[in-house]
Design goal:
Strand content: under 5%
Largest sheet: none
Number of domains: 1
Helix content: 55-70%
Distance between the termini: 20 Å
Number of helices: 4
Structural class: mainly alpha
Order of helices and strands: HHHH
């Protein structure tokens, strides 16, 4: 079965939403810390614009990364697990075949 054909139960949709929220919160908290660190060492206009460019790039990356379409969930979760924002434990309750696909993709990506 292709990932675009996977069916998500209401319970799995709830688990997916909670996992998205958890990963996003973790990533934003890490970003806030980086921004605090960088902001504390600003000493020139060039430093300000570098921080601005960094934030613009991160916003673009985050907007693209957190794709909640059901057809993309398996891949998004695999990315988030691989990057360390989620663990497979955060996805417990999903169908075993979905967890297996996510786990396999983390090793391939």
């Amino acid at each position: 079965m292709q990932t675009s054909e996977l069916q998500w139960t209401a319970q799995e949709q709830s688990i997916a939403k909670a996992a998205f929220g958890k990963a996003y919160k973790r990533e934003i908290e890490a970003l806030v810390q980086v921004v605090r660190d960088q902001a504390s060492s600003l000493s020139s206009t060039d430093d300000i614009w570098r921080l601005h460019d960094f934030l613009s790039a991160r916003r673009h990356e985050l907007d693209g990364k957190y794709d909640e379409r059901e057809s993309a969930l398996i891949f998004v979760f695999a990315d988030l697990v691989k990057e360390g924002w989620l663990s497979l434990d955060d996805l417990q309750g999903l169908d075993a075949s979905k967890l297996s696909k996510i786990s396999a993709l983390t090793r391939m990506m």
